[in-house]
């Protein structure tokens, strides 16, 4: 049984009580229940991690509360009784903070409501007095509580899927492997079957299974689970999506936007939003974020969201003929890749009545509605003031920070006060982008991920995540303060070296704070999410100042390569930084292992360890580095970055003005029709791109189809080509550029297609 009954007993107690407990334990075992015992009463609250595990992994908790027998029923009078009840109350409080549904029963002798305070009684499921009933009867009572609890654990869709997979019925529908049996007809198929397991394959079904409901129509158990998830995430409507938030974004856009509609878009948005512009034929105007010289994207200034600023952008656009058209949709990245989060309540208020709909791309923020640290910083919350006219959408990747499988996503909708959300139109866009053969395991993970966040479980999980991230940050800072030479850093406010949760005010961006390096910041309009940790390496400041020759300098890509070969894969790499993502799955063991690996890297750097010894797999893939030392490589690559002033260049390509030549959808159509020329990088200046140009890292689009390629961008692409030849294995790549390290081209429009 995966969920044992946990029995919590004091270190000492009356011998008779211990005997009755032993009899009860024997009776519980006879019912088939598995037991787990905890002792040493009074120490539990000092071990919150252990109690969190108890709360989440128990089918029931029996807490043995020993009070003095024979006192009046008016309540505890002996100091020992007062202390015992206080300890029990603390225990129950911690368990309930992590699980508001697991049965908690007090076990004792002559326990009554008059001896137990209301603060404890209101949070438990019952009292068991050892001598009032036989051990076998009490065991059946406890077994009933366990059965009820476990029977209610699974949310509607996952419960239905488990019933179907366990039913043993033959499958006469697709997929063709028929519950996994098709794989068993081949040796490699058998290997596949054994690796993934029968349950996953039995649960891989098609939409012909009516009892599971329909994702495309939102019926049956799927609809029940979506309604429960909507309640958990405080949305008026919530829809599961099985192929990622890239698809969620396109569903929202195709339900709202048509050819010629004006849309306002965060310039550093995810490429799926730009794809949506191409698909819908929309006319974009862009909101421009700031950026520091270390490559971290900052917030869009508050003024950019005002009606006046948006009107100025419309007037300046060469692509908009009718300057009086309303803005159909505004899309904002909330949070950015680096963790910048806007005050969503303020943005909703500013934009209400200015745009028809607001789309918060919260792929990296599904956790925000579950903790006070983020209050007012997430787009949808139907317990807050509604917008009068603008419908608010949020798209979230539950697989990024919560517990969904890859591609698990969801769309949240909050209707305006006058009820403008049209679910009928939305349903058509949903069907356009959703497969008729969805992966049911992904649907189940959407369901389970939402259920894990319901009640007090979600806030507890998010608080744990924040705490672990803060402990990691503080550890890195402490080691740096104690190191006689160099160490790594963390990008963020210089918070006091205390324990516990962060103060919200410390993480809000202000103009006078030097740590962020942004030129334009509105006080209190945005904050840094502390769980998005940017680990910095020596070599470059946020203001673009390179370390002098001979000083420690560690390009981020070198450290990332080392960590990957030693079992640590980071989310994103910057010039002199790594992005380390803290999710609900992060543990102390994991981030402490990262700290240990950083120590080993530092020692290898100090000893100039040979690359083939330090990273044998990398050295085998790139034999040209054989015999080179780690420090030598770092210093030479640093010199290359410095000589090219790459910090300034990689900032300029994202912040210089963009010239729009033709609509993105026109540029895409011309490319699809073959009306493009593949122009060498050296000849690109002044040409109009037909493709998205997206440097990796960081993976943020640089140019949109239909925009002019500047001399600065050409200089960047040429330098990227030179780096690839000189430093193979230590460079990125720009998607949209074709060819090899010696001859690269970009698809550009012919002159006859460069029309607005």
Tally the structural domains: 5
> Which CATH-level-2 architecture of the largest domain?
3-Layer(aba) Sandwich
The structural class is alpha/beta
Going by CATH, the homologous superfamily of the largest domain would be Type I PLP-dependent aspartate aminotransferase-like (Major domain)
Q: How much strand?
A: 5-15%
| Uncertain spans | none
Overall average residue pLDDT: 91
Biggest β-sheet strands, sense, barrel: 7 strands, mixed
Q: In angstroms, what is the radius of gyration?
A: 30 Å
Strand order of the largest sheet: 6-13-12-11-9-7-8
Distance between the termini: 67 Å
**Percentage of residues assigned to helices:** 25-40%
CATH class assignment of the largest domain: Alpha Beta
| Shape verdict | globular
Overall number of strands: 23
From the 3D structure, determine the CATH topology of the largest domain. Aspartate Aminotransferase, domain 2
The count of helical stretches stands at 26
Structure overview:
The chain is of the alpha/beta class and 756 residues long. The chain folds into five domains: 147 residues, Response regulator (Rossmann fold, 3-Layer(aba) Sandwich), CATH 3.40.50.2300; 55 residues, no CATH class; 240 residues, Type I PLP-dependent aspartate aminotransferase-like (Major domain) (Aspartate Aminotransferase, domain 2, 3-Layer(aba) Sandwich), CATH 3.40.640; 186 residues, Aspartate Aminotransferase, domain 1 (Alpha-Beta Complex); 98 residues, Alpha-Beta Complex (Ornithine Decarboxylase, Chain A, domain 4). It is 38% helix and 14% strand. The protein is built from 26 helices and 23 strands. The strands form six sheets. A seven-stranded mixed sheet has the order 6-13-12-11-9-7-8, with helices on both faces. Strand 7, helix 11 and strand 8 form a beta-alpha-beta unit. Helix 6 crosses helix 16. The longest helix has 26 residues. The mean pLDDT is 91.
């Amino acid at each position: 049984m995966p969920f044992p009954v946990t029995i919590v007993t004091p270190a000492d107690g009356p011998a008779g009580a211990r005997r009755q407990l032993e009899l009860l334990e024997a009776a519980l075992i006879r019912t088939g229940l598995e037991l787990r015992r905890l002792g040493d009463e009074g120490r539990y609250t000092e071990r919150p991690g252990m109690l969190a595990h108890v709360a989440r992994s128990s089918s029931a908790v029996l807490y043995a509360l020993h009070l003095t027998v024979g006192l009046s029923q008016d309540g505890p009078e002996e100091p020992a009784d007062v202390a015992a009840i206080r300890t029990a109350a603390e225990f129950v409080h911690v368990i309930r903070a992590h699980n508001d549904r697991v049965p908690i029963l007090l076990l004792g002798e002559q326990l009554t409501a008059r001896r137990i305070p209301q603060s404890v009684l209101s949070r438990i499921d019952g009292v068991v007095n050892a001598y009032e009933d036989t051990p076998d009867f009490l065991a059946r009572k406890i077994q009933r509580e366990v059965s009820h609890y476990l029977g209610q654990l699974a949310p509607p869709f996952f419960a239905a899927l488990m019933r179907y997979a366990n039913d043993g019925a033959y499958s006469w529908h697709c997929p063709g492997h028929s519950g996994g049996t098709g794989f068993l007809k081949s040796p490699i198929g058998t290997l596949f079957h054994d690796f993934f397991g029968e349950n996953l394959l039995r649960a891989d079904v098609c939409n012909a299974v009516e009892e599971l409901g329909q994702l495309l129509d939102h019926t049956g158990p799927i609809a029940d689970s979506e309604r429960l998830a909507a309640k958990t995430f405080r949305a008026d409507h919530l829809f599961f999506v099985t192929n990622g938030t890239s698809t969620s974004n396109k569903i929202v856009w195709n339900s709202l936007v048509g050819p010629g509609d004006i849309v306002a878009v965060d310039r550093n948005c995810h490429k799926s939003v730009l794809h949506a512009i191409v698909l819908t034929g929309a006319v974009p105007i862009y909101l421009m974020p700031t950026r520091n010289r270390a490559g971290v994207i900052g917030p869009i200034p508050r003024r950019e969201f005002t009606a006046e600023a948006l009107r100025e952008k419309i007037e300046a656009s060469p692509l908009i003929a009718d300057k009086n058209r309303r803005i159909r949709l505004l899309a904002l990245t909330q949070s950015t890749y680096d963790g910048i989060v806007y005050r969503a309540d303020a943005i909703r208020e500013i934009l209400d009545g200015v745009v028809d709909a607001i789309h918060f791309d919260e792929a990296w923020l599904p956790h925000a509605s579950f903790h006070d640290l983020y209050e007012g910083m997430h787009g949808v919350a139907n317990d807050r003031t509604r917008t009068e006219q603008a419908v608010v959408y949020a798209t979230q990747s539950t697989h990024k920070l919560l517990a969904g499988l890859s591609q698990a996503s969801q769309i949240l909708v909050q209707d305006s006060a006058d009820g403008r959300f049209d679910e009928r139109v939305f349903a058509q866009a949903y069907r356009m982008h959703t497969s008729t053969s969805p992966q049911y395991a992904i649907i189940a993970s959407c369901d389970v991920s939402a259920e894990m966040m319901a009640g007090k479980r979600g806030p507890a999980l998010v608080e744990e995540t924040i705490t672990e991230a803060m402990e990691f940050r503080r550890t890195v800072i402490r080691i740096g303060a104690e190191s006689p030479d160099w160490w790594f850093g963390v990008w963020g406010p210089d918070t006091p070296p205390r324990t516990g949760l962060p103060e919200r005010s410390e993480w809000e961006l202000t103009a006078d704070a030097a740590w962020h390096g942004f030129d334009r910041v509105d006080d209190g309009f945005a904050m840094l999410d502390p769980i998005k940790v940017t680990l910095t390496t020596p070599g470059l400041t946020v203001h673009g100042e390179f370390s002098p020759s001979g000083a420690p300098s560690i390009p981020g890509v070198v450290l990332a390569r080392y960590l990957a070969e030693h079992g640590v894969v980071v989310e994103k790499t910057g010039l002199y930084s790594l992005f380390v993502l803290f999710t609900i799955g992060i543990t102390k063991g994991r981030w402490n292992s990262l700290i240990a690996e950083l120590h080993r890297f530092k020692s290898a750097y100090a000893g100039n360890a040979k690359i083939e010894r330090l990273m044998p797999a990398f050295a085998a893939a790139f034999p040209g580095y054989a015999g080179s030392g780690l420090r030598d490589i770092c210093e030479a690559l640093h010199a290359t970055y410095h000589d090219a002033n790459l910090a300034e260049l990689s900032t300029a390509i994202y912040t210089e003005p963009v010239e729009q030549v033709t609509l993105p959808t026109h540029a895409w159509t011309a490319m699809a029709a073959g009306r493009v020329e593949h122009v060498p990088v050296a000849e690109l200046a002044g040409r109009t791109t037909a493709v998205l140009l997206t440097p990796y890292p960081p993976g943020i689009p640089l140019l949109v189809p239909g925009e002019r390629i500047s001399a600065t961008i050409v200089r960047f692409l040429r330098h990227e080509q030179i780096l690839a030849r000189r430093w193979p294995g230590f460079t990125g790549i720009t998607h949209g550029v074709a060819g090899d390290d010696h001859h690269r081209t970009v698809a550009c429009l012919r002159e006859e297609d460069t029309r607005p």
